[in-house]
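haha ok so turns out i had the wrong file open the whole time. this is the CORRECT one, sorry everyone. sequence first:
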Amino acid sequence: MDSPNQYFTVGSPENDAPPMSSSQHLALENLQLRLENQRLLEQLHQQIHDIQRERESVRLRLIAVESDYDAQVKELQGEVISLREDVQSQKRLFKQTNQAQQETMQNLSERNNALQESLEESKRHASSLTVKAKELQDQLISSRTAIQSHVQQIESLRAEISQLKEDKASLERRLATITEERDCLLNALSDAQQTTALLQTENSNQLSVLSHQDNELAQLQEAAAVLKDQLETLGSRSSPRHKQKFLQGEGDVGEAAAALPGPSRYTQPHHSLLGELSDAVPAHQDQWWYRHVMLDPTMSEFYEDDGIEVDDDSLLAFSRGHTAGSGPLAMDFCNSEDSAVNANEEGEVILDLDPNYNFMNTFRTEVAEIYQQLRQMCVDFSAQSNAMAERDALPSSRPGDWTPDQLALVEWDFRLASLRNVLTDLRYLLQDLTIPQPTTNVAAASSPPIPKPSPSDKAIDV
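then structure:
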C-alpha cells in the first residue's frame, strides 16, 4: 500500500504548479484527503471480504477439530496430573535451595565481619608505621653527616662497575646460546604440531588444566588486589615535610657530585620511569626482585603487547648502571658478588638492621614471587594460544558457524588478555616499590652518576 507521504510528494499538483493562496492550498489538501480516504475504504472492504472467507474456512476446520477434542482433553488431563506432581517436586527442591542459600549468606556475613576486624587491625598497623616513618626522618637528618665517607667509596664502586660490565658481556653470550636453544625448541614444536590426532585425545586434559589455571589466576588477582591495598597503606606514610627533606638531601648529593673531578661528572638522562629506576638506591642491587622488575629482556614480547612506551636513553642508562641485574640469568653472580660489597658498606648495614627496611624487603619479595608465577603462566598461555591458532584458524564466516576448537581458541585469547592485564598491574606495583626508599640520600651519594650512552652503545644494546 502506498503511503500518504509518497502520494503527496509524487502525485500532488503542488510540485508542478506555481505558489497558490492558503484557501486553494487547503482545498487541494481536502481533495487529496478524500481520495486517500476513498482508497483506504476500498482496501478495508477487500480486507473484510478476505476475513469473511477465512472465518468460513475456520468454522469448517473447527467442526473437524471438535471431533478430536474429547480425546485430547483426556490426554491433557493426564498431563496436568503429571505436571502437578512435577511442580510439587520442584517446590520441595526450591525450598531446599533457599535453605542452602540462607546458610551460605550467613557464612558470608560472618566472613565479612572477620574481614572488617582485620581491616581495623591494618589501620592501627598503618598508624604505627606512620610513627616509624617520622623516626626514619630523624635518622635521615643524622645520616647526612656520613656523606663525605661515602664519597671515598666511589672509586671502588667504579672498579666494580667495570667488572660488572665484563660480566654483562658473558651473560649476553649465554643469552645468545639460550636463544639458539629456543630456536631449536621452536622447530621441534612446529614438528610436534603436525600430530593433531594426539592433541584431540588430550582435549579433556587441557580442559582440566584450564580450570586449574583459572583458579590460580583468580588467586593471583586477589593477591594483586591485596598487595595494591598494602602499597596504598604504605604510601600514606610519606608527608610533605619528608618530601621537602628528601629533595633537600638530593640537592646536597648533587653538590657533592659536582665537586668531584672531571671524569666523575656525567650527563644525567632526562627523568622518566626507567630514569628514576636507574637512579634508585644501589643498596638493593643484590636483591633479585630489584633486578627482575627492570625490564627483563625475556619479557620484551609482553611489554610490546601491553603498549608501554619506554625511553631508549633511560633504558640504556639503567642497563649500564645495573648491568649485573638485567634478568634472571644474573641472579647467582650478583648475589655472590654484591654480598661482599654490602658487608663493607656502613650505610647498608644500617638498612639491614632497620625493621621497616626488612619489612619492605619481605613485601617486595612476595610481590616479585607472584609476578614470576604470573609471568610464567602468561608465557604458557601464549605458547598454547599460538599452537591453537596455527592448528585452528578462525574462518571468515559468522561466529555461529565456528567449531568447538575455534571457540576454544577465542577463549584462550580472552584468558591471555586477562593474564597480561594482571601482569601489567603487578609490574607497575613493583616499579612503584623500587623508587621511594627511606635512605635515598645516603645510598645516592655512594652510587656514581650514570653516563649518557653514545649512539654506538645504543646500537649495540638494541
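The radius of gyration is 38 Å.
again sry for the mixup
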